[in-house]
Amino acid sequence: MHHTALATAVVGLLAGLASATNGDWQQCGGINWTGDTTCGSGAGCVKINPNPSPIDYSQCQPGAAPAPAPTPTTLKTSAVPAPTSTSTPSTPGSPAGTGPGTELQSGYYWIRAVEAPNFHKYLQSNPLYGTGSAVLGDYTTAGQFQVVDGQLVQLVSAPGAAVKLLYGTVSQERSFNNQALLLSWSETKNTYGTFGWQGDGLTWSVAGITRPNSIAWYVCTGQQVYINLGNYMYQTPTGCVDETIHYYNDKHANN
């Protein structure tokens, strides 16, 4: 009887250890981390990249659980003919969320430009918190973002509500001198290229395309944001300006 009770206790202890998980916003990895790396249901263990330190901390973030692998698609890496018009494409959108408010939520960043004429204009969606155009706008309507597993995500749910995200999606169709790719917001994940951070600068890369400046962007008519595949401040298309955009983690966005 003594041995049976002991065995039962050991089995119970091992079961408890096997099911241990970290709660939302708790540490789940990093340099010298020896604890559990598993997050609760619906959360994912996300590497945090504070500036200027290298990645050395991972945190359980709600809504960041890995999704099933998407069906493989053939990426277009060869140049396609530039459109005959350089006007801003139509990107109809629809409401997707109520928004996280004007106070920065834990685990997310503001993203803003730091050069004229868009100094301290903030990345957001048009319509606000909805699918459609990625634009730079006023600090009072700034979006909140993070890069998770190569995806640029925007938090569009209210604090305390179930986490809802939009994904930055990159068009494979080139425009503006054949050197620009349109960025927009979707409820489905991006399948073309990978987002990341270079210091505090937002980057994008894809196999088969070598970018001279990985943090180079265009802001064109209507404040629409494009990836600049060419050189920064060289042969800038009419109606566009060159920008780099960077994360900012103060409690509130400001101008």
UniProtKB/TrEMBL annotation:
<dbReference type="GO" id="GO:0005576">
    <property type="term" value="C:extracellular region"/>
</dbReference>
<dbReference type="Pfam" id="PF00734">
    <property type="entry name" value="CBM_1"/>
</dbReference>
<keyword id="KW-0732">Signal</keyword>
<dbReference type="GO" id="GO:0005975">
    <property type="term" value="P:carbohydrate metabolic process"/>
</dbReference>
<protein>
    <recommendedName>
        <fullName>CBM1 domain-containing protein</fullName>
    </recommendedName>
</protein>
<feature type="compositionally biased region" description="Low complexity">
    <location>
        <begin position="81"/>
        <end position="97"/>
    </location>
</feature>
<dbReference type="InterPro" id="IPR000254">
    <property type="entry name" value="CBD"/>
</dbReference>
<feature type="region of interest" description="Disordered">
    <location>
        <begin position="57"/>
        <end position="101"/>
    </location>
</feature>
<feature type="domain" description="CBM1">
    <location>
        <begin position="20"/>
        <end position="61"/>
    </location>
</feature>
<dbReference type="InterPro" id="IPR035971">
    <property type="entry name" value="CBD_sf"/>
</dbReference>
<feature type="signal peptide">
    <location>
        <begin position="1"/>
        <end position="20"/>
    </location>
</feature>
<dbReference type="GO" id="GO:0030248">
    <property type="term" value="F:cellulose binding"/>
</dbReference>
